[in-house]
């Protein structure tokens, strides 16, 4: 699609979702911006195909802290925090859930990736108060440029630039640049660009959805 045609489609998409921007503004005043975002996110997530992606991006360009028009947001994607930031050429696969996160340029998220607002979004220290009533601490999670997060992964810590996280992994500690990490909890098993191959025997403890083999050039083999 040519640049002119894309720009035209993006402009039309903004016009279509403009009533939702008004309801988002009103709900943000009467409740909270995050609560309104969740409501509109659930509605917009149900629109399929490229049309759905264009409409979602059009809305999030105004509702999020930053959403680049080149982003792709697939079916079923939910946002919970207006502070989320999506940079150039970000791809978010189907049914992902995004909290207070920054996705840098060219980040790819496979299906059903969850990036909540840090590992302490709920307080758990008190036993005399239900967890739902204990305040937590929100933390921005950043995914560095040109990183690929495999489907079904749960990201609770920063992922550095040009990293690969294997499918079904749980990231609990920050990664180093160009690292390939797999497992629960995710641990480094290789570096992108190195000729070595890491086999399934080196990824003991990975979940059933984990890839069987991870090549250091970034190719995941199931």
From TrEMBL:
Gene Ontology MF annotations: O-acyltransferase activity
Keywords: Acyltransferase, Transferase
Enzyme Commission no: 2.3.1.-
Positions with biased composition (Polar residues): 196-210
UniProt key word NAD: no
CDD domains: LbH_MAT_like (cd04647)
Name of the molecule in the record: Acetyltransferase
């Amino acid at each position: 699609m040519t640049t002119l045609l894309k720009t035209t489609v993006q402009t039309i998409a903004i016009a279509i979702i403009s009533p939702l921007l008004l309801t988002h503004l009103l709900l943000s005043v009467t409740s909270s911006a995050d609560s309104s975002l969740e409501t509109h996110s659930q509605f917009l997530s149900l629109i399929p195909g490229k049309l759905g992606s264009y409409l979602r991006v059009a809305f999030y360009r105004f509702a999020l802290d930053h959403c680049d028009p080149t982003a792709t947001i697939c079916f079923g994607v939910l946002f919970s925090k207006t502070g989320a930031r999506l940079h150039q050429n970000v791809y978010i696969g189907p049914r992902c859930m995004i909290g207070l996160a920054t996705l840098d340029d060219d980040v790819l998220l496979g299906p059903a990736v969850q990036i909540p607002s840090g590992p302490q979004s709920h307080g758990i220290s008190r036993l005399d108060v239900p967890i739902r009533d204990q305040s937590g601490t929100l933390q921005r999670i950043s995914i560095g440029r040109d990183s690929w997060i495999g489907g079904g992964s749960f990201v609770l810590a920063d992922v550095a630039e040009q990293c690969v996280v294997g499918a079904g992994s749980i990231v609990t500690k920050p990664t180093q640049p160009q690292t390939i990490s797999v497992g629960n909890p995710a641990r480094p098993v290789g570096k992108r660009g190195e000729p070595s191959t890491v086999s399934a025997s080196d990824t003991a403890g990975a979940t059933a959805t984990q890839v069987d083999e991870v090549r250091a050039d970034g190719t995941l083999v199931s």
